[in-house]
Amino acid sequence: MASEDKQVEKSIRKLPDPRVIEIEKPGEVAFWMKWFGASEDELHEAVRAVGPSAQKVARYFEEMRRPR
User: Fold this and answer.
1) Helical H segments across 1-68, by residue range
2) What are the pLDDT digits (tens) for 16-53?
3) 20 strand-pairing partners
4) Beta-carbon contacts of residue 34 (< 8 Å; ≥ 6 apart)
5) From CA 54, how far away is CA 48, in angstroms rounded?
6) What is the pLDDT of residues 5-15, one digit of tens each?
7) Residues in Cβ contact with 26 at an 8 Å cutoff, skipping those fewer than 6 apart
8) What single DSSP character describes residue 52?
């Protein structure tokens, strides 16, 4: 297992509320980047656009990635 995967795995166990993205915590940023398949900049933009709700961020990415 790659060290990045281990960090993400540790982050999963430490998530206090998996419904909220705490963008100021590097471990959570790494987890959510992997979860959504997004870059750090894309994740930050999504949180700025819709707030820290993981559900809203998921919808944001779905909409952004939907073919037009």
Assistant:
1) 3-14, 26-36, 40-50, 54-65
2) 677 899 999 998 899 999 999 999 999 999 999 999 99
3) 53
4) 4, 8
5) 12
6) 666 666 555 55
7) none
8) S
